[in-house]
Specification:
single chain; alpha/beta; 6-stranded antiparallel β-sheet; 9 helices; 27 strands; globular; binds alpha-L-arabinofuranose
C-alpha cells in the first residue's frame, strides 16, 4: 500500500492573482518556428493562411488563450535589426542567422507581421530589443515606431508602411541572455548598459514594462547585482532562464529516454521551485513590496534534435514526459504568483518543448499543448494557497516530490485544482482538504496515455488528448481521487 498525498487549502492571503502572463509563449527566428511553423508566406496557395500565417496554427493558438508572445528571440534578438523587417518585402535585405544553423533570413516576417499576428491571437506582444549588437537609438526608434501616436519620423515611417494606429506594445526585453549570446557581459557591466537603454525607451503613455535580461538558472549574483544597481523606476521585470536538461553535452533522445534520464529531466524541472524561491528572496531584499516581477521568459525541456534534422534547428518530439514537466512547472509558477508574474514556454512551434508541430500541410498539438489548454482556467484567477504533502519519486539516493498541485478561484466562483503525478509507475492517492470551502459538484479532465514515451505523431495526431475525469469523490470538505501514473488532472469544483 502506498502512503497518501495531502493537498490542504490554507487560510493564506487571498489577494494574489495568478497573472495570465505566466501562460506566455515564445517564438524565435530559429529553425522552423517562424518560417514554416507560423509563417508560410502570403503567396502560399496550398496552405490556408491569413497574411501568410497558417490558419490551423492561428486557430490552435487562439484556443490556448495565449496571453503574450515573445519575439524575435532569444539569441536571435541581439542580432536583429528591426528596420530590416519593415517595408516592401521584396526590398528587405537578407541577413545570416548566425546562432541558428547559419541559414539566410530574408526578413519577410517582421514587425508588422508579428504585431498583427498578436492582435489576431488576442495576445500581447513581448518584443525583445537588440542590446548586444544594436544601438540605443535603434531600440528607442523601435519603441517610437510601434507606440507613438503623434507625428514623428518613426510613426510617419510606420504609416508609410500601412499602419495608422500604434500597436501600444507594453512588454519589452532589454536584451537577452546578456551573460551569454547577448554579449557575454558581467552583471555589473550589463546593469549599466541596461540603465542606458531603458532611459531612452519613451513611455508614450503606454506604461512600458521593461524586462532586464536575467540570470542563467542559479546565477543568484546576477539577480542581486541587477536589483542593487538598476534604479527601480527604470525596471518592471527581471528575467530568469532555466531549461530542464540532463546534461548540456548529452541531452538524450526526446522519445527514447531511459528511466534514469526521465528522473533527471524531472529533477532539473523541479529545480525551478528552488530557483524561483531563491531569486525571489533576493528580490525581496531590495523590493519588499514586490513591484518588480520575476519573468521566467524561457523554460521547458531541452533534448537532442530528432535524428536527421538540422542540429541548429532544435526540433524535438514531445511525450508524456513533457506533459508532466509542463504541468509541474506551471504549478510552481502559480504557487509563486506573488513574484512570478510572467513566463514564456520555449518555444511555440517546431522548436524545443513546442505546443505545435508541423510537417508540410500537417499540424499536430503536442501533449504539452493539452496541458496549457487544460490550465488556461488558472489565468487571472485568484490563487488559493495550499500546503502539500507528497510521496517521493526516487532514483538511487535521489528524490523529488511525486505530486504537485495548484488551486485557484475564478471571479465567477469556480474553483480549479491542477494536479500532476510525475511517478512513471505508481498511481498516487490524493486527499484534498478544502478547509472551510463547500462545493456541490466536482468534475475534471485527465491527460495521460498508455505509455510514458507515447507522443502524437503526424500519423496519429490526436493519440494523446484530454478526456473526462469523473472519479474524484466529494464528501463534505474532503475530496479524494487516484492520480494515474504520469498524469495531469484539472478538477473543477462548483
Ligand atoms: O530557446 C533557445 C535559446 O535558448 C534562446 O535563443 C536563448 O535565449 C537560449 O539560450
Amino acid at each position: 500500500a502506498w502512503a497518501q498525498n495531502v493537498v490542504k487549502f490554507t487560510a493564506g492571503p487571498d489577494t494574489i492573482v495568478i497573472n495570465k502572463h505566466i501562460y506566455g509563449h515564445f517564438a524565435e527566428h530559429l529553425g522552423r518556428c517562424i518560417y514554416d511553423g507560423l509563417y508560410v508566406g502570403e503567396d502560399n496557395k496550398t496552405l490556408a493562411n491569413t497574411d501568410g500565417v497558417r490558419n490551423d496554427v492561428i486557430a490552435a493558438l487562439k484556443n490556448l488563450h495565449i496571453p503574450n508572445l515573445r519575439w524575435p528571440g532569444g539569441c536571435f534578438a541581439d542580432t536583429y535589426h528591426w528596420k530590416d523587417g519593415i517595408g516592401p518585402k521584396d526590398k528587405r535585405p537578407s541577413i545570416v542567422n548566425t546562432w541558428w544553423g547559419g541559414v539566410t533570413e530574408n526578413n519577410s516576417f517582421g514587425t508588422h507581421d508579428f504585431l498583427n499576428l498578436c492582435e489576431r491571437l488576442g495576445a500581447e506582444p513581448y518584443l525583445a530589443g537588440n542590446v548586444g549588437s544594436g544601438e540605443v537609438q535603434e531600440l528607442a526608434d523601435w519603441v517610437q515606431y510601434v507606440n507613438f501616436d503623434g507625428k514623428s519620423p518613426m510613426s510617419d515611417l510606420r504609416r508609410t508602411n500601412g499602419r495608422e494606429k500604434p500597436w501600444k506594445v507594453k512588454f519589452w526585453g532589454v536584451g537577452n541572455e546578456a551573460w551569454g549570446c547577448g554579449g557575454n557581459m558581467t552583471p555589473d557591466y550589463y546593469a549599466d548598459v541596461y540603465r542606458r537603454y531603458a532611459t531612452f525607451m519613451a513611455d508614450n503613455g503606454v506604461g512600458l514594462f521593461r524586462i532586464a535580461s536575467g540570470a542563467n538558472s542559479a546565477d543568484y549574483n546576477w539577480t542581486e547585482t541587477l536589483m542593487k544597481k538598476i534604479p527601480h523606476g527604470l525596471i518592471q521585470g527581471i528575467a530568469l532562464h532555466h531549461y530542464a536538461v540532463i546534461n548540456w553535452g548529452k541531452k538524450g533522445s526526446s522519445t527514447m529516454y531511459t528511466d534514469e534520464e526521465y528522473f533527471k529531466t524531472m529533477q532539473s524541472a523541479w529545480f525551478m521551485n528552488e530557483l524561483v524561491e531563491k531569486h525571489a528572496a533576493i528580490m525581496d531584499k531590495y523590493d519588499p513590496e514586490k513591484k518588480i516581477a520575476l519573468v521566467v521568459d524561457e523554460w521547458g525541456g531541452w533534448y537532442d534534435v530528432e535524428p536527421g534534422t538540422n542540429p541548429g534547428f532544435l526540433y524535438q518530439q514531445n511525450t508524456m514526459r513533457d506533459a508532466v514537466l509542463a504541468g509541474m512547472t506551471l504549478n510552481i509558477f502559480n504557487n509563486h504568483a506573488d513574484r512570478v508574474r510572467m513566463a514564456n514556454l520555449a518555444q511555440t512551434v517546431n522548436v524545443l518543448q513546442a505546443v505545435i508541430l508541423t510537417e508540410g500541410d500537417k499540424m499536430l498539438m503536442t501533449p504539452t499543448y493539452h496541458v496549457l489548454e487544460m490550465y488556461k482556467i488558472h489565468q487571472d484567477a485568484k490563487l488559493i494557497p495550499i500546503q502539500l504533502t507528497s510521496n517521493d519519486l526516487t532514483f538511487g539516493q535521489e528524490k523529488i516530490p511525486a505530486v504537485s498541485a495548484a488551486a485557484s478561484i475564478t471571479t465567477n466562483g469556480k474553483t480549479h485544482v491542477s494536479l500532476v503525478n510525475i511517478d512513471p509507475k505508481k498511481e498516487q492517492k490524493i486527499t484534498i482538504d478544502l478547509a472551510d470551502k463547500r462545493y456541490g459538484t466536482v468534475h475534471g479532465r485527465l491527460l495521460t496515455s498508455k505509455k510514458l514515451r507515447d507522443f502524437n505523431s503526424f500519423e496519429k495526431p490526436a493519440y494523446i488528448k484530454p478526456r473526462e475525469f469523473n472519479e474524484a469523490q466529494l464528501k463534505g470538505n474532503q475530496l479524494s481521487l487516484n492520480l494515474p501514473p504520469f498524469s495531469v488532472v484539472v478538477l473543477t469544483l462548483e
